[in-house]
Specification:
It is built from nine helices and ten strands. The chain is α+β, with helices and mostly antiparallel strands and 288 residues long. The protein has two domains: 4-138, MutM-like, N-terminal (N-terminal domain of MutM-like DNA repair proteins), CATH 3.20.190.10; 149-287, Helicase, Ruva Protein, domain 3 (Orthogonal Bundle), CATH 1.10.8.50. The strands form three sheets. The protein has a four-stranded antiparallel β-sheet with strand order 1-6-7-5, with no helix packed on it. It is elongated and about 60 Å long. Residues 239-273 form the FPG-type domain.
Length: 288
């Protein structure tokens, strides 16, 4: 899933490649992706691309006052194409959900695709005059890279959740998902199961510092990368997430995993839980 660093990098990529272009044909390959119908997606055609913005994990393209906003969800992505086919894509074929064709000032005709892998179709697209009219944007908490330390502490201690859950609660703090929350907690040396109200001042400050450093480093590594390379860049920077069974690069202990529902998270026992192995609900069910 693209999280805040990848969204910021995609935002910058579109600023450099799409702003100043004119929207041509908009091809909707999957009707289910559209969450608004008035104005229709075709209303974007002929408009200048005047800006790009983001709200948490939402990415928006300003087409002269009419916004195309997307949430890429778990398996979505934005793919840039320098020379797209002139023929419209066939609906329902492959991962393509929506294509926006462009005309640039230098006469090029690129396009960008919104795609989604897998069978669970959660990628969403809105066309709106006001981004805050998108319900999932209206509910967002402050951006994780913009929230102050004082505000962060107030938000954290104002809820009663496990810290892992709080970091990924978009209504609390916007932009952090499963992967970067694992990395933040590893850097902060905190258990994913720690309660938000049990964190003392030092732990809270450590968590804030880890959040800023982890996300800031990821943004620095990601901005300037070609859109196609961002997924690989994200994986390459992970110390524990997605590295179950590997050695922790900090202490050498084995990275462990806890699985639940259709998700999992990773952590280092030595760095984060005082050596304690957290209960894996998936394994617990199998052993009953």
């Amino acid at each position: 899933m693209p999280e805040l660093p990848e969204i910021v990098a995609l935002e910058q990529f579109l600023v450099e490649h799409a702003v100043g272009a004119v929207v041509g044909r908009v091809d909707v390959a999957a009707l289910s992706v559209l969450k608004t119908f008035d104005p229709p997606a075709t209303a974007l055609s002929g408009r200048d691309v005047t800006g790009v913005g983001h709200w948490g994990k939402h990415l928006g393209i300003d087409c002269d006052g009419l916004w195309l906003i997307t949430h890429l969800s778990r398996a979505g992505w934005l793919r840039w194409i320098d020379e797209p086919s002139a023929a419209p894509p066939k609906p329902g074929k492959g991962p393509l959900a929506l294509r926006v064709n462009l005309f640039t000032p230098d006469g090029a005709t690129p396009a960008f695709d919104l795609t989604e892998a897998g069978t669970k179709k959660r990628l969403a697209v809105w066309v709106t005059k006001e981004p805050l009219l998108v319900p999932s944007i209206a509910r967002l908490g402050p951006d994780a890279l913009a929230v102050s330390e004082t505000e962060f502490a107030e938000l954290l201690h104002g809820t009663s959740q496990r810290v892992k859950t709080a970091l990924t609660d978009q209504g609390l703090i916007a932009g952090i998902g499963n992967a970067y929350s694992d990395e933040i907690l590893h850097t902060a040396k905190l258990s994913p199961f720690a309660g938000t109200r049990t964190l003392d001042a030092d732990q809270t400050a450590r968590l804030y510092s880890a959040m800023r450093a982890t996300l800031g480093d990821a943004v620095e590594r990601s901005v300037g990368q070609d859109a196609a390379r961002l997924k690989g860049e994200k994986r390459s920077g992970m110390q524990v997430h997605g590295r179950t069974g590997e050695k922790c690069p900090v202490c050498g202990d084995t990275v462990r995993e806890v699985a639940y529902a259709d998700k999992s998270f990773q952590y280092c026992p030595t760095c984060q839980t005082g050596g304690k192995i957290l209960a894996d609900r998936r394994m617990s069910r199998l052993l009953k």
